[in-house]
Write a structure and sequence with these properties.
two-stranded antiparallel sheet, 4% strand, elongated
Length: 187
């Protein structure tokens, strides 16, 4: 069952994904040369420098277009399955966490490219990376809010049907092995 906290987190994730989608569409229009209004947030020419770099097409389609696809997927899963627990055989929280994790790592790679290869920062890209980081953090919070299986030494919680006694038992030094049943029955 979807908890109230998880439902609220999904709403916030959906709102952040919508803002990210708008930014990604704006950047996609610029990358595809359908608009010439880059208007870097806070001024400067960082957005133009990043948009004109060879890394825009480094992973196939323009990077911002891939951002549009990622944000649309997150928005669709968040809003389309707002009160449901599963998408087919998978829990919604797992699908969202996977999408957000991919977006987060992708944003880290892009920020690395901006810092160490392009030597310029696009403010819109950094805002998008911040949004994806927030979405990833909220997906982790939702995972915990819906009580995902966590294994912690001393306080083990596990999924239904999984044995709670998963910690290996240590044998005491010098202890004799227990006799087998056959030997015990003969005595």
């Amino acid at each position: 069952m979807t908890t109230e906290r998880a439902l609220k987190l999904r709403m916030v994730i959906g709102l952040l994904a919508l803002v990210g989608l708008l930014i990604a569409v704006h950047l996609s229009l610029n990358e595809l040369r359908l608009s010439s209004n880059t208007a870097c947030l806070g001024g400067g020419s960082g957005c133009d420098t990043v948009n004109e770099s060879r890394y825009v097409y480094a992973f196939g389609p323009p990077i911002a277009l891939q951002g549009v696809i990622g944000y649309v997927l997150i928005l669709t899963v968040t809003l389309g399955w707002m009160t449901r627990e599963r998408i087919g055989p998978l829990p919604v929280r797992m699908v969202l966490l996977g999408l957000a994790e991919y977006g987060f790592v992708f944003s880290l790679v892009l920020t690395y490219l901006e810092a160490f290869k392009i030597h310029a920062f696009c403010t819109w890209c950094l805002v998008s990376a911040g949004l994806m980081t927030a979405i990833f953090g909220l997906c982790l919070a939702m995972w915990i809010a819906e009580e995902a299986p966590l294994r912690v030494w001393g306080n083990q919680r596990s999924a239904p049907g999984v044995s709670r006694n998963t910690r290996p038992q240590r044998k005491q030094a010098g202890a004799c092995p227990e006799p087998s049943r056959k030997v015990a029955e003969r005595d």
